[in-house]
């Protein structure tokens, strides 16, 4: 009963953090000259010396013909989407050039800093580092899978692993790979769809990670009790994802929610490591301390250096070694629990 009440209080705390969020507009995209530039670019397809090939007149669009269900054909919609994206990029670069000539600092446009493109990559450094993080999680998951299924002893009758949290870590790995995949895609091509998939995947991963930290810290093994632990947080996370996708993608609000969930789980892991005297607690504390420092990069945002490296990309860089150490701890925990249970079985 006490554990259930604690979980309810935690969900209330997260909901309170959500309510504190405020609607914020970026300074760049409310600038009159920027908005005028984007509007004219979408109409003419020309901005300065740049000719946006994706932008075309309505007459040309109509000449292609509609599909059988009376909607625009997909490639026309794609052209219009690229037209808007390219117009925003070139107008942003033009406006930032004007601001720089006046000695003004960079500002955000649509919640993002002005980055310099490299080929199709809109945020090349963040995209590359996201791909590396994806690879780190996949290799960590693979080594964990080989460990628990082929290197550690299995239960004699069921041939299942002794480690009680094997399936939970498999789900965590899938959510991690999915989150970093969409992070890579989003930083490569920033459109409404990839943005929502990136944010939704990240929130889902954080919510599940919070649940997993509580289940491991309180050593919850019974399936019914696990569901009782997870239900309030799952309801909250699902509501938040629906809000982001179908009501408003509020960056400030989402940041507060993610920071609260991340802080609670880091605190949970840190306290549990000390109380349980886990043999690999030093690894866990290093991940917790490193994760807390990495969160400061997200909270103390700054414009991209030379148009490429901002606080968010540095956060992506910091999570690479932390991910390696994190999966090392997970494997140590599997070895520790398996050894303990095998001794009890004997």
Question: Span between N and C termini?
Answer: 33 Å
Work out the helicity level: over 70%
Q: How many β strands by DSSP?
A: 2
| Protein structure class | mainly alpha
Shape: elongated
Strands of the widest sheet, in order across it, are 1-2
- The CATH topology name of the largest domain reads Rhopdopsin 7-helix transmembrane proteins
Mean pLDDT: 85
**pLDDT < 50 runs, ≥5 residues:** 1-24, 58-71
> Total domains, how many?
2
Your description of this structure?
With 346 residues, the protein is an all-alpha fold. It folds into two domains: 32-102, no CATH class; 117-345, Rhopdopsin 7-helix transmembrane proteins. It is 71% helix and 1% strand. The protein is built from eleven helices and two strands, in the order ααββααααααααα. α5 packs antiparallel against α6.
Features:
single chain; 2 strands; Rhopdopsin 7-helix transmembrane proteins; mainly alpha; two-stranded antiparallel sheet; disordered N terminus; about 350 residues; transmembrane helix; Per1-like
């Amino acid at each position: 009963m006490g554990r259930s009440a604690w979980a309810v209080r935690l969900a209330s705390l997260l909901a309170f953090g959500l309510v504190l969020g405020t609607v914020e507009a970026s300074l760049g995209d409310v600038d009159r000259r920027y908005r005028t530039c984007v509007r004219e670019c979408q109409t003419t397809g020309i901005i300065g010396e740049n000719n946006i090939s994706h932008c075309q007149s309505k007459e040309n669009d109509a000449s292609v013909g509609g599909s059988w269900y009376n909607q625009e054909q997909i490639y026309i919609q794609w052209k219009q989407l690229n037209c808007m994206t390219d117009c925003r990029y070139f107008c942003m670069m033009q406006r930032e050039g004007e601001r720089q000539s006046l000695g003004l600092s960079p500002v955000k446009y649509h919640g993002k800093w002005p980055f310099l493109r490299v080929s199709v990559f809109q945020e090349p450094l963040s995209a590359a580092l996201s791909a590396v993080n994806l690879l780190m999680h996949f290799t960590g998951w693979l080594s964990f899978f080989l460990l628990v299924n082929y290197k550690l002893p299995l239960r004699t009758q069921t041939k299942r692993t002794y480690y009680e949290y094997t399936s939970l870590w498999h789900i965590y790995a899938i959510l991690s790979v999915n989150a970093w995949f969409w992070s890579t895609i989003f930083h490569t091509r920033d459109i409404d769809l990839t943005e929502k998939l990136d944010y939704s995947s990240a929130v889902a991963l954080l919510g599940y990670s919070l649940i997993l930290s509580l289940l491991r810290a309180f050593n919850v093994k019974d399936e019914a009790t696990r569901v009782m632990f997870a239900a309030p947080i799952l309801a909250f996370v699902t509501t938040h994802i629906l809000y982001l996708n179908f009501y408003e993608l509020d960056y400030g609000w989402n940041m507060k929610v993610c920071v609260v969930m991340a802080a609670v789980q880091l605190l949970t892991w840190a306290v549990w490591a000390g109380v349980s005297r886990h043999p690999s607690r030093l690894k866990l504390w290093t991940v917790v301390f490193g994760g807390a420092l990495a969160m400061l990069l997200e909270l103390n945002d700054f414009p991209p250096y030379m148009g490429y490296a901002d606080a968010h990309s540095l956060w992506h860089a910091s999570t690479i070694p932390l991910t390696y150490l994190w999966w090392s701890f997970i494997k140590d925990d599997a070895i520790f629990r398996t050894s303990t249970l095998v001794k009890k079985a004997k």
